[in-house]
Amino acid sequence: DAPWSRLPAAELRARVGAAMELDLAVDPTDAANVSVGRISGGGIFRSTLGGTGGWLPGSPAVASFRVRALAVSPRDPRIVLAGSEIEGLRRSDDRGATWSTPSISSPGIASLLFDPQTPGTVYAGGYDGFASRSDDDGQTWSSGRLVGGIVRAFAIDAPDARRVYAGTDAG
After folding, report:
1. Based on the number of CB atoms within 10 Å of its own CB, is 136 exposed (0-12), middle (13-18) or buried (19 or more)?
2. Is the pTM of this model over 0.85?
3. With bands split at pLDDT 50, 70 and 90, how would you rate the model's confidence at 35?
């Protein structure tokens, strides 16, 4: 088992800001590439030193984007998705240098998860029980509704990837 280690909070606060409500995503092919998105004040920041330092702000296009969820494609780490409760969804094909706004029927995104077993499949969850699936790395989306509440997390059943669990604040 690998030991847990703490990110150096002092540098992270100095670069990213004192508001530490963050989401974290790690490049699945190179753990030295770590991205964080922050809600308060917005923005996406990257480190190429495994999160131990070297934090730099991302593209000006997302400088004020209040990030609630951040995900990197396990198949193609150039593809990054960022979700916001207010600004919706953003997609990058170049590790965050540029961003587009895919069409998705929820204005607010609270969770994102790439399916590690099914290339191109990603799930997005949001408010009022919103849940959506994309089969093309987040370019287009189909949507549906769950029982209610905010969809805060997804989990995929390892033996049966057709079974996806959604965690909501409604239970």
Report:
1. exposed
2. yes
3. confident
Output the CA torsion sign for 154, 160, 163, 167: negative
Which has the closest alpha carbon to 134: 94, 91, 86? 91
For 151-162, what is each residue's pLDDT tens digit?
999 999 989 988
> pLDDT band at 19, cuts 50/70/90?
low
3-state secondary structure labels for all residues of the chain: CCCCCCCCHHHHHHHHCCCCCEEEEECCCCCCCEEEEECCCCCEEEECCCCCCCCEECCHHHCCCCCCEEEECCCCCCCEEEEECCCEEEEECCCCCCCECCCCCCCCEEEEEECCCCCCCEEEEECCCEEEEECCCCCCCEEEECCCCCEEEEEECCCCCCCEEEEECCC
pLDDT, tens digit, 9 for 90 and up, residues 56-65: 888 888 888 8
Tokens 């607010």 appear where? Answer: 108
